[in-house]
Each structure stands twice: as structure tokens, then as C-alpha cells.
Amino acid sequence: MTMLEATGLSMQVGDGRWLFRDVDIYLSKGDVLVLRGPSGAGKTTLLKCLAELVPYDEGNIKLHGKEASDYGVPLWRSRVMYVPQRPAIHTGTPMDLFNMAKNFASQKEKKNLDDPTQIGMQWNLSESHFTESWSNLSGGEMQRCALAVALALNPEVLLLDGKW
């Protein structure tokens, strides 16, 4: 059974050329899809479109047969979560980000949130990494903390951008 379905997804850039055109993606629970291509080919933009973070010109995206407008965009983004290659430097700590995100209305219906610290410890992070200011973490530590936070929020679809 298809969980995430994108059909005819297309985006045109300012000069009139298509960044991508007529992309179809069908994913079932447990599927892994890897997008590969040269820098500037549109991989990041396509992932952001799937997460409803940037608008696309044509096509539609459905999760369990429903569009983002059926869920509401905040709820969609809690179910289809995008993790950037280089996490933006947030104020506070990774645990501050997790605690803020878990209190969003879109997260309220989730019963079983995980502990990002426990997830991160599997990737050579310590508890102190999650209470350290983002600005004091290395790029790799930031990326692993951001991924641990995203995983702890239990999205249905996780869109990872970068070299994982």
C-alpha cells in the first residue's frame, strides 16, 4: 500500500527552465529512496517540495491518499519531516528544540515520542551534546543532533538532505 505518493511534480525556475518535471514517487512503509545527482540538479528543492516547505508549479503529493491541505500544513510537516544537510543554528540547545517542537499543536496527537538523547548516543553523541548550545557543536554533531531530534518526533516520512 502506497504511503507517500507524488505525481507529476514539477518546478520551473525564474529563467523558464524546468528544475524538475513530471516526477512520480510512490513509497510504501519501510521504503528507502535515494536521490543522487550533481550539485544544483534540484534534489534539495524536490525534498522541500515533498515536505511542503516550498511551492511547486505542477503535480500533487499525498500521504495516505490525502493532500497537505487535508491535514493542514503544520500537521503535514510533522508527518513528512525534512532534515537539512546543514541544520540552521538555532538559539538554545538541541533539547530546547526538541522540547519546543514536541509542544507544537501538530505533535499533540502523537502518543509515543522518543528521547533524542538515547537516539544520539547510538551515534557517539553524549547527553551533554543535547544540552550544549548549537553554536558550540561541530557540523557533524549538529547534523546528528538534528537527526536525533527529528527521529524522536516519530515522523511517518523522513526526508534527509545531505551526505548521510
UniProtKB/TrEMBL annotation:
GO molecular function, one term: ATP binding
Keywords, alphabetical: Hydrolase
Gene3D superfamilies reported for this sequence: P-loop containing nucleotide triphosphate hydrolases (3.40.50.300)
Domain ABC transporter residues, every copy: 21-161
Source taxon at top rank: Eukaryota
Descriptive protein name: P-loop containing nucleoside triphosphate hydrolase protein
Organism listed in the record: Phascolomyces articulosus
Origin organism lineage: Eukaryota, Fungi, Fungi incertae sedis, Mucoromycota, Mucoromycotina
